[in-house]
Amino acid sequence: MRKRTSPYSEDFRQLAIQLAQKLGSCNAASKLMGCYRTSIQNWIKLENETGSLRPRRRGRRRRKLEGDGDRILDDLVRERPDRTIAELRDLLVAQGFAVSAAAVSRGLKLRKVTLKKSR
Q1: Spatial CB neighbours of 39, under 8 Å, sequence gap ≥ 6
Q2: What pLDDT, in 10s, does the model give residues 27-42?
Q3: Quick check: 69 and 97 in contact, CB under 8 A?
Q4: pLDDT tens for residues 7-20?
Q5: Which of 34, 35, 38, 82 ranks highest by number of CB atoms within 10 Å?
């Protein structure tokens, strides 16, 4: 089975649940429907909890550098573009932002800033 990028439709989910109930097995239903057994089990759980098979909203990762952090990162890079990610992270931490090197790297990537070093 290939990984899906969008959620299954509510009709598909309902059909899979009905088939699992008729066959008495999520495993058999998953093979016939071409989806994972755990998906059907999760849909049954979702229907019991919410009364609906509507896909849950996918969350967006909250960025660590929003508002002032974005502006400060821009200023730091503009001020001295040869700083390393670790140096930028240390400067942001010193200014009160709890960020990791990965968060700084993502922030630079969003700005399409590359840090090419000649050292």
Answers
A1: 8, 16, 30
A2: 999 999 999 999 999 9
A3: yes
A4: 899 999 999 999 99
A5: 35
Task: Name, in order, each residue with C-beta under 8 angstroms of 95's C-beta and a sequence gap of 6 or more.
Answer: 72
Query: Can you tell me the distance from the alpha carbon of 95 to that of 7, in angstroms, rounded to the nearest whole number?
Result: 41
1-59, what's its fold? Arc Repressor Mutant, subunit A (1.10.10)
* 3-state SS, one letter per residue, for 49-108: HHCCCCCCCCCCCCCCCCCHHHHHHHHHHHHCCCCCHHHHHHHHHHCCCCCCHHHHHHHH
Is the overall model pTM greater than 0.85, yes or no? Answer: no
CA proximity to 108, closest of 82, 86, 87, 77: 77
